[in-house]
Amino acid sequence: MQKKLLSLLVCAGLSSMAHATVTDKMIENDAASTGDVLSWGIGQQGQRYSPLKQINPSSINKLVPVWSFSFGGEKQRGQESQPVIHNGKMFVTASYSRIFALDAKTGAKLWKYEHRLPDGIMPCCDVINRGAALYDNLVIFATLDAQLVALNQDTGDVVWKEKIDDYAAGYSASAAPLIAEGLLLTGVSGGEFGIVGRVEARDPKTGKMVWSRPTVEGHMGYKYDKDGNKTENGISGEQGKTWPGDLWKTGGAATWLGGTYNGKTGLAYFGTGNPAPWNSHLRKGDNLFSTSTVAIDVKTGQIKWHYQSTPNDAWDYDGVNEFITYDEGGQILGGKADRNGFFYVNDAKTGKLVNAFPFVKKITWATGIDLKTGRPNFVPENRSGDPTQGADGKKGTSVFAAPSFLGGKNQMPMAYSPDTKLFYVPANEWGMEIWNEPVSYKKGAAYLGAGFTIKTLSDGPIGAMRAIDPKTGKIVWEAPNNAPLWGGVLTTGGNLVFWGTPEGYLQAADAKTGKIVWKFQTGSGVVAPPITWSDKGEQYVAVASGWGGAVPLWGGDVAKKVSFLEQGGSVWVFKLAK
Ligand code: CA
Ligand code: CA
Predict the structure, then answer these.
(1) How far is the CA of 223 from the centre of ligand 2 (A)?
(2) Residue 29: nearest ligand to its CA?
């Protein structure tokens, strides 16, 4: 009897321990497990879909705030973070490389960590962070001075800290790390400074490197043994093939938004940013693997396939947007709403293009995508001119281009519902004047060779939440928004779509009709993706609030239009009133 009791106690102890540490199994199962949110994307595939349905169009009128927490300080800048939830705790990152651990029930602060940032950091697009990864008893996030920090979930103590690269050369990091097959996968930011994009795999428990895979053609990949000795693991692509001269050495293609993973393909999908510099006349060729989706075999660190959306990009159409995989008719497909205004559907195993169609109304750089070759049909006269051909050699012909470089969609992650089989895409309609200028690479200096002004296309709304059928390319419904949308999306088994607006609202619409059924004013602009989870039979919704990001910094005429919006820094949690 006593023995039985002891074994019961041991079992209870073990199961609570198992609950306390985050395992690979739990991460693989994250999309289905509704009691926690362990990864950016609410599951490795990044669908941002939860089967929870307690909150639905009939009950949502009772959705009220439970608590709100202020990130405090004077650091009220853009808050683009997705919180993660585990073991009754919320881990949420904030501007200036800060992270907070909060009691998920009450909002009480458990601990905070403020990363000490040097003066010389060079983030292009506000001092934001997009979220943390959970593994074992660690919470791991990237910092603006291009480091990774792993903290003990319970105490906030630093367990390990590793440098990704030299911030003084323009490297920074703000994406949430991705855990796949027991590895920590991270990218880099800095495409505007001529950095070299790459994906790195580390041991999440120690931070030690396992492999690195450059996303600029010509660079060598490496693998590392347990003692840190590195060996060559093959060049990415073929040196000198799609880049002229030495430009590949500072070729950009930053993997700044992080990645997604599909356990059935074994591939991690990372989007890559612009080739550097922006002036496309300096780098004739496709400039692989810039503005692409790159599918990397997680076990080997090799590029299995790539699909390039904007070859020889001349508009800063960073192709970083998230590649969300889903099952369709026995196939595994992936959808991506590209900054260049087209929505792409690729076979997730092979990369073969299945469908491509516009998801914004005005696109000037191409008339469409050739489904046979996978290449865009360019409009050559809408590429900004070569400055060496200009009258004084200092400025090429300026063109009006749409979308603007801020994109048909930017960093705000979309959602996919397996119930409605629709993607929910936060889209924006805007354009830009863009021209080229001479430029040469200088370490730590902006490496654009271009000038620009963002323009509105009309006096009407810029943003639109669009429900898109990836099979037909049809917009099933849309909900216009006056300011450009900059926050991510959540969809649920309760037939709801949640998203935030720069005007400060977290709102929800009926997933089938687009009818807005609920909204709440958070006190500052929402530029982050919402999450949902359940605890003891109650469904919770949370979102970070705090206006900022690239629009107020780079938005030209659009920034003036939204200059009345106030900054902030907080996280809000909601549930149904009893
Ligand atoms: Ca989960
Ligand atoms: Ca860029």
Answers:
(1) 28
(2) 1
Rounded to two decimals, what is the model's pTM? 0.96
Q: Which ligand is nearest to the CA of 272?
A: 2
Which residues keep their CB under 5 angstroms from ion ligand 1?
30, 33, 36
Residue 12 has pLDDT above 50, yes or no: no
Confidence of residue 390 (pLDDT cuts 50, 70, 90): confident
pLDDT per residue as tens digits for the range 242-296: 999 999 999 999 999 999 999 999 999 999 999 999 999 999 999 999 999 999 9
Rounded to the nearest angstrom, the distance between the alpha carbon of 532 and the centre of ligand 1 is 9
Give the ligand with the smallest distance to the CA of 22: 1
How many Å lie between the centroid of ligand 2 and the Cα of residue 339? 10
Task: Return the closest-CA partner of residue 507 out of 400, 428, 566, 426.
Answer: 426
pLDDT digits (tens, 9 = 90+) for 93-110: 999 999 999 999 999 999
* Ligand closest to CA 25: 1
Residues 484-512, mean pLDDT to the nearest whole number = 98
DSSP letter string over 79-121?
--PBPEEETTEEEEEETTTEEEEEETTT--EEEEEE----TT-
Q: Report the relative pairing of strands 98-103 and 89-94 from DSSP bridges.
A: antiparallel
Question: First CA to last CA across the chain, in angstroms?
Answer: 43
Q: Confirm whether 318 is a catalytic residue.
A: no
Lowest mean pLDDT among 389-393, 470-474, 531-535, 563-567: 389-393
CA of 40 to the centre of ligand 2 (A): 22
Residue 328 phi, psi (nearest 5)? -150, 110
34 CA to middle of ligand 1, Å?
5
Q: Which of 2.140.10.10, 1.10.260.40, 2.40.50.140, 1.10.357.10 would CATH assign to domain 22-576?
A: 2.140.10.10
Q: Where are the domains of the chain?
A: 22-576
Mean pLDDT of 516-531: 98
Of 36, 286, 316, 318, which residue is the catalytic one?
316
Which pair of structure tokens corresponds to residue 377?
């049909």
- Angstrom distance (rounded) from CA 343 to CA 159: 41
